[in-house]
Amino acid sequence: MKFFPLSLTLLLAVPAAAQTAEPAPGAAPHPAGAPLPVEVMAGHQQLILQTVVNRKFAPDSRFAFFNLTTFGADYHNEPTKNSYLTSAALKVELLPRFSVFGGLNMNSTVGFRPTGGLDYVFTNPTWLVVAEQSVDLTETHNLQSLVLVEFKPQLTERLALYSRVQGLYNYNTQEEAHDLSYLYLRLGLSYRTAGFGLAANLSRFGPFKVLKENYGVFLRKEFF
C-alpha cells in the first residue's frame, strides 16, 4: 500500500501553524516575520523531526513561500520503516484569513505530485484555528479535509499551556475509498518560544483503515 498522502497531510497541517501571531501578554516581543518552528517527537515506534519555513515575499505582500521537511526514523534503522519528505508551495491571500495555495509534494515512496487548495486561518495569542480543503491535481485526485486547533492560554507571565488537536480525512476518488485519516494530540507547556509535553499520533491507512499508533513526548522551538 502506498503512503503518499502523508506528504500532503504534512503540507496542509503545518503552514497555518507557522503564521505570525501576536506575543502573549508578558512575553518578549517577537521580531518581524513568521517564526521558523522545529518539532521533535520521540514516540515508542518512531522518531520524527520536522522543520518549517513560511515567509511572505515582503511584509505587506499577499504572496508567501512555504517549505516543509520531515524525517521519520525507526529506532532500529529498518529501511522500510524510515521515511523522508519535502513540500513546497506558493500561497496567495485572497481575503483576510483566506488563502489559496499550489505546490509540489515529494517523498521517498512515490516521487512527487502537484496539489492545490484553500485554507482559512484564525490566530491570536491564545487560539489558532485552521480549516483546509485540498485536492491532488494528478493521478487519483485525492480529496482532503483538515482541521487544526491550538489552545495556548497563559498560566504565568512567561509560562503557558500548549495543547493541539489536529484531525484529517483523505479520500481516494478513483477507488472511492478511505485512503488516510489521523488524529494528532499534543498537551504540554510552553516557555517563551519553546514547548514540551506529551504526544500521541493515531493514524489509519487504506480502505481497511489499518491503525498505527505512536505515543511519546515532543519538544518544539520557534526561531525568529
Structure in words:
With 224 residues, the chain is mainly beta. It has one domain: monomeric porin ompg (Porin, Beta Barrel), CATH 2.40.160.40. Helices cover 4% and strands 63% of the residues. The chain contains 1 helix and 12 strands; from the N terminus they run H-E-E-E-E-E-E-E-E-E-E-E-E. The protein has one helix at residues 5-13; strands spanning 36-43, 46-56, 63-74, 83-95, 98-107, 111-123, 127-136, 143-151, 159-172, 177-191, 194-205, 210-223. A hairpin with a 4-residue loop joins strand 9 and strand 10 (177-191). The chain starts with a helix and ends with a strand.
Describe the structure in brief.
By secondary structure, this protein is mainly β. The protein is 4% helix and 63% strand.
Write the layout of secondary structure elements.
Blueprint: H1 5-13, E1 36-43, E2 46-56, E3 63-74, E4 83-95, E5 98-107, E6 111-123, E7 127-136, E8 143-151, E9 159-172, E10 177-191, E11 194-205, E12 210-223
Antiparallel strand pairs: 1-2, 1-12, 2-3, 3-4, 4-5, 5-6, 6-7, 7-8, 8-9, 9-10, 10-11, 11-12
The CATH architecture is Beta Barrel
Number of domain units: 1
The CATH class designation is Mainly Beta
Q: Into which percentage range does the β-strand content fall? A: over 45%
Q: Number of helix segments?
A: 1
CATH homologous superfamily label: monomeric porin ompg
Q: Can you list the strand order of the major beta sheet?
A: 1-2-3-4-5-6-7-8-9-10-11-12
Classify the secondary structure makeup into a structural class. Answer: mainly beta
Overall mean pLDDT: 83
Strand element count: 12
Provide the helix percentage. Answer: under 10%
The name CATH uses for the topology is: Porin
Distance between the termini: 39 Å
Please trace the helix and strand order, writing H or E for each element.
Answer: HEEEEEEEEEEEE
Largest sheet: 12 strands, antiparallel, barrel
Radius of gyration: 17 Å
Query: What coarse outline follows from CA principal-axis ratios?
Result: globular
